[in-house]
TrEMBL record, chain A:
Main location: nucleus
SUPFAM superfamilies, A to Z: Actin depolymerizing proteins
Pfam family, one: Cofilin_ADF
Similarity field: Belongs to the actin-binding proteins ADF family.
Name this protein carries in UniProt: Cofilin
Domain ADF-H: 4-145
GO terms of biological process kind: actin filament depolymerization
Lineage: Eukaryota, Fungi, Dikarya, Ascomycota, Pezizomycotina
RNA-binding as UniProt keyword: no
Species of the source: Penicilliopsis zonata CBS 506.65
GO cellular component term of the entry, any: nuclear matrix
Automatic annotation (TrEMBL), chain B:
UniProt cross-references to CDD domains, sorted A to Z: ASKHA_NBD_Arp4_ACTL6-like
Record key words, sorted: Activator, Chromatin regulator, DNA damage, DNA repair, Nucleus, Transcription, Transcription regulation
Biological role: Chromatin interaction component of the NuA4 histone acetyltransferase complex which is involved in transcriptional activation of selected genes principally by acetylation of nucleosomal histone H4 and H2A. The NuA4 complex is also involved in DNA repair. Is required for NuA4 complex integrity. Component of the SWR1 complex which mediates the ATP-dependent exchange of histone H2A for the H2A variant HZT1 leading to transcriptional regulation of selected genes by chromatin remodeling. Component of the INO80 complex which remodels chromatin by shifting nucleosomes and is involved in DNA repair.
Residue stretches in coiled coil: none
Species this protein is from: Penicilliopsis zonata CBS 506.65
Family assignment from sequence similarity: Belongs to the actin family. ARP4 subfamily.
Transmembrane spans: none
Protein name: Actin-related protein 4
Keyword Aminoacyl-tRNA synthetase: no
PROSITE patterns assigned: ACTINS_2 (PS00432)
Subcellular location: Nucleus
Subunit organization: Component of the NuA4 histone acetyltransferase complex, of the INO80 chromatin remodeling complex, and of the SWR1 chromatin remodeling complex.
InterPro entries hit by this protein: Actin, Actin_CS, ATPase_NBD
């Protein structure tokens, strides 16, 4: 086992993620956070808004108990056109959002728990962001599609 | 606040205890309680040795600087590559780092140590075993230690052996510097550039794991820069500069810039004088100040010896910026102009090395420079993850605080890896930069959830020292 925080993943994260991955776009995203007692990762919220920017703003506006920017994890259901009449595809991308202005301790915990959550969920692609510009729609599209769309 | 009172934030096995975090480097050892912002104990990795009335004495910590005792010599248990060479002394230096400021010496339990028992006449306590067990310095404290990415298995096993058997620690973990520094910046994947005293290293970290094939290091660290400054001083005009440490000066008079010093020197008879390694240690302190106040990294773009886009050599531009003054302990002072860039240029450009036949450092090869180390590190890892590493370059280590260092690094990265997503993350806070991996380890070891990571004493007893390679990957 590689060095990690030992923070556990609440079972509900995994079961809801399974439902989410089978929901065929009904749920577009899920956001996860560290519980207040810093012992486990729990679901923060999920939603079905089709507009990516609604999700991005929600993710990037997350605040900690003192009102400072706070890290989060998220999964987003990316839909893209393959082009050439091959139709649409859906891929789930895992996003770790750790803004530089966030609390040092939270940054450390989110970084050292990321791998545990990612492995538990098993999404197709992943991306890390510390600035809002790191997760522009085109970048996310590019990463999720393995370079077949976006950018 | 009394520094010897631990904070009560950590939990281990349900009991409130404070883990100790120990981050040993070539130049300093950082130790402190988990959960705190900075290491309470910061001591030199060097120790001193001298003979007094026929007995060998050893001194640790800041005491080594204080008194120029007859025959005092200075040693370092670490090798230049950052791997321990003298285990007995490394153990003692590290032990001093926490017993001096954190744990204190451990007295036995006063109810059981026998000292307070009413004894029948003429009988002395015979049960000594229990007392000894109580006296191990870390009997109550889990210990999280750090290590370089190239620490060999043997050294790792020796480390856990010391922690478990000699210090009596109930739980232990060994974390890689690179991973800890990446985590402390909020990143699970990063290219960690660590500029220390004896080494510069480039460590690719992906999903919280070190990519061993990519780890690169070379000896162009802070001590090498010191040797370059010495070479500069020797070649200085109008006259070579000698560093005379404070202990050799009884008084000084201020002199004009560039004028010979007018100081009254202390002299030691040969049998009273400390060993030359003591003088070298104190000279190093002056060189550190010089690095902090004067030395500057040419910010780029391009090398210092190159010519800029409008036909003006970069050296000319560097020369036209105002110089920086520096006063030596003997009162000699001078303004340093373009030379202050030259002493660090060889970290980026091997040809810029200032030759000095007496220096212990051979001239660097191009492969040892930072831009080449970065290239080799990236070549050693999968193509797909290179862009992710370049977007997350983490800079740590005290020598990375050289003025202009991150600007130049940024320029080198942009030139060598043209990509819209090259980004350096370097904490502006000097504490975090100097103690990056200690800070990361401090947070981890303070988490209640971290208890499942520790290697417990029982596991160690069952599996032996080799457990460290299985558990601390």
């Amino acid at each position: 086992m590689s060095l990690n925080s030992g923070v556990s993943i609440n079972d509900e994260c995994v079961t809801s993620y399974k439902e989410f991955s089978l929901s065929r776009g009904k749920t577009k995203y899920m956001i996860f956070k560290l519980s207040d007692d810093k012992s486990e990762i729990v679901i923060d919220e999920s939603g079905g808004e089709k507009d990516y920017e609604v999700f991005r703003n929600k993710l990037c506006d997350a605040k900690d108990s003192k009102g400072r920017p706070a890290p989060r994890y998220a999964v987003y259901d990316v839909e893209y056109e393959l082009g050439g009449g091959e139709g649409k595809r859906n891929k789930i991308i895992f996003i770790s959002w750790v803004p530089e202005e966030s609390d040092r301790m939270l940054r450390m915990i989110y970084a050292s728990t990321r791998e545990g959550l990612k492995t538990a969920l098993g999404p197709a692609a992943s991306i890390h962001a510390d600035e809002k510009g790191d997760i522009e729609w085109n970048t996310v599209l590019y990463e999720a599609s393995g370079g077949k769309a976006g950018k | 606040m009394n520094p010897s009172i631990p904070p009560s934030t950590a939990e281990y096995g349900g009991d409130e205890v404070s883990a100790i975090v120990l981050d040993p480097g070539f130049s300093t050892v950082r130790a402190g309680f988990a959960g705190e912002d900075t290491p309470k104990s910061l001591i030199p990795s060097y120790y001193g040795k001298y003979t007094y009335e026929g007995e060998e004495k050893i001194i640790f910590g800041d005491d080594i600087y204080v008194t120029p005792r007859p025959g005092l010599s200075i040693h370092n248990p670490m090798g230049r590559d950052g791997i321990v060479e003298d285990w007995d002394m490394a153990e003692k230096v590290w032990e001093y780092s926490f017993t001096s400021r954190l744990t204190g010496s451990k007295p036995g339990n006063p109810l059981q140590n026998g000292l307070n028992d009413a004894l029948p006449d003429g009988e002395l306590p015979t049960e000594m075993e229990g007392i000894e067990a109580e006296e191990k310095p870390l009997a109550d404290s889990p210990l999280l230690m750090t290590e370089s990415g190239w620490n060999p298995s043997k050294a790792r096993e020796k480390t856990i052996e010391i922690a478990m058997e000699n210090w009596g620690s109930p739980a232990f973990y060994l974390g890689r510097n690179g991973v800890l520094a990446a985590f402390a910046s909020g990143k699970a994947s990063a290219l960690v550039i660590d500029v220390g005293a004896s080494n510069i290293s480039v460590t690719p970290v992906h999903d919280g794991m070190i990519l061993k094939r990519g780890v690169q290091h070379s000896p162009l660290g802070g001590d090498y820069i010191s040797s370059q400054i010495r070479a500069l001083f020797k070649a200085n005009s109008p006259q070579p500069i000698t560093i005379t440490p404070h202990y050799l000066i009884s008084s000084k008079t201020s002199v004009d810039a560039g004028q010979p010093p007018q100081a009254v020197y202390k002299t030691f008879a040969p049998e009273k004088a400390p060993h030359e390694s003591y003088r070298a240690l104190l000279e190093e302190r002056t060189l550190s100040e010089f690095k902090e106040c004067v030395v500057q990294v040419w910010p780029g773009p391009n090398r210092l010896t190159a010519t800029g886009p409008n036909g003006i050599p970069n050296e000319e531009i560097a020369r036209s910026s105002p110089g920086r003054p520096f006063e030596f302990p003997d009162g000699y002072n001078q303004v340093f102009g373009v030379e202050r860039y030259r002493v660090v240029e060889s970290l980026f450009d091997a040809k810029a090395h200032i030759p000095d036949s007496e220096s212990p450092f051979p001239a660097p090869t191009p492969a040892q420079t930072l831009p080449e180390l970065i290239k080799s590190a990236l070549n050693g890892v999968d193509v797909d993850i290179r862009p992710h590493l370049l977007a997350n370059v983490v800079v740590t280590g005290a020598s990375s605080l050289l003025y202009g260092f991150t600007d130049r690094l940024n320029q080198e990265l942009l030139q060598n890896f043209p990509s819209p997503r090259v980004r350096i993350s370097a904490p502006g806070n000097t504490t975090e930069r100097r103690f990056g991996s200690w800070v990361g380890a401090s947070i981890l070891a303070s988490l209640g959830s971290f208890h499942q990571m520790w290697i417990s004493k029982k596991e160690y007893e069952e599996h032996g020292p080799s457990i460290v390679d299985k558990r601390c990957k």
